[in-house]
Specification:
By secondary structure, this protein is of the alpha+beta class. It has 2 domains: about 140 residues, Regulatory protein AraC (Jelly Rolls), CATH 2.60.120; about 100 residues, Arc Repressor Mutant, subunit A, CATH 1.10.10. It is about 40% helix and about 20% strand. It has 9 helices and 11 strands. The strands form 3 sheets. The protein has a 5-stranded antiparallel sheet. A 4-stranded antiparallel sheet has the order 2-7-4-5. A two-stranded antiparallel sheet has the order 9-11. A hairpin with a 2-residue loop joins β4 and β5. α1 packs antiparallel against α2 and α4 packs across α5. It is globular, with a radius of gyration of 19 Å. About 0% of the residues have low confidence.
């Protein structure tokens, strides 16, 4: 007979969005970090970091850095360290905007995981299952080291989670507030309010970040033209796409494609 513990809370779910390893350069200057995901960073040398409240913070070897979703933090880069980065999602957890970056130690148990993931990414295997498991393990451990005030638990609203999942799977469709709210049988204003309480941003902002984050991934290769990428992420106007992409990432899509590569 199966028994359940009614006092055991549902565990949060950690899922990896993307992991990469690359050499930083000028493209990482004044890049505004936006997106619906958490970020994990580790640098192998000095010379790059973040601006937080007008303070210049250098990301140092031997430390890891966690940034919450929608942080909007600006970057800087004066040298060319190698960066291991992970974009991941964590259910039932909301970042505190007063803590746009948290510095944590690279502990002894984290180092071999990070080293193995870095070697695999360096060998050109960014999307294998083992990398996903290593990245999830690393991020899960890092989150346990965050100060309590850096994040808060959020209630689980299955309707909002379903909409977030729907948005991720339908980036190329025409979507608006009435369409989304009707899917969960809520008035548009009530839906928008609940969505923001759950995610920290409006449905439009969430969709915008999903679209341009996916576009940035597609630009890492030359498999699709920029016009094709526009269609794939639901942006019909190439000029609007380029202008918004530059606003979010600091450079136009074509320049981003040329520079944001481990080979540069």
């Amino acid at each position: 007979m199966n028994k359940t513990n009614p006092f055991l809370p549902e565990p949060p779910q950690v899922s990896m969005d993307y992991a990469g390893y690359l050499k930083l350069g000028r493209f990482w200057n004044k890049l505004r970090l936006a997106g619906h995901f958490w970020r994990f960073y580790h640098h192998d040398g000095p010379g790059a970091g973040l601006f937080v409240d007008a303070r210049k913070i250098e990301m140092l070897p031997g430390r890891c850095y966690i940034l919450p979703p929608h942080c909007g933090t600006l970057t800087w880069c004066s040298l060319a360290p190698f960066q291991l980065y992970i974009h991941f999602e964590l259910s039932m957890c909301v970042g505190n905007p007063r803590f746009p970056v948290s510095e944590i130690p690279l502990t002894a148990d984290m180092r071999p995981i990070l080293d193995e993931l870095r070697e695999s990414l360096r060998d050109g295997r960014p999307n294998c299952l083992k990398n996903s498991l290593l990245a999830i393990t690393l991020c899960s451990r890092a989150m346990t080291l965050l100060p309590p005030e850096a994040w808060t638990e959020s209630g689980t609203d299955r309707r909002i989670e379903a909409i977030c999942d729907y948005l991720r799977k339908n980036l190329d469709r025409e979507l608006n507030l009435p369409i989304l709210s009707s899917k969960v049988h809520l008035p548009p204003n009530a839906f928008s309010r609940q969505f923001r309480e759950h995610t920290g941003v409006t449905p439009y902002q969430y969709l915008l970040q999903l679209r341009y984050n996916h576009a940035s991934k597609l630009l890492h290769s030359h498999q699709h033209s920029i016009d094709e990428i526009c269609d794939m992420v639901g942006v019909k106007d190439r000029f609007h796409f380029s202008r918004t992409f530059k606003k979010l990432y600091g450079v136009p899509p074509a320049q981003y494609r040329r520079s944001y590569s481990p080979d540069t």
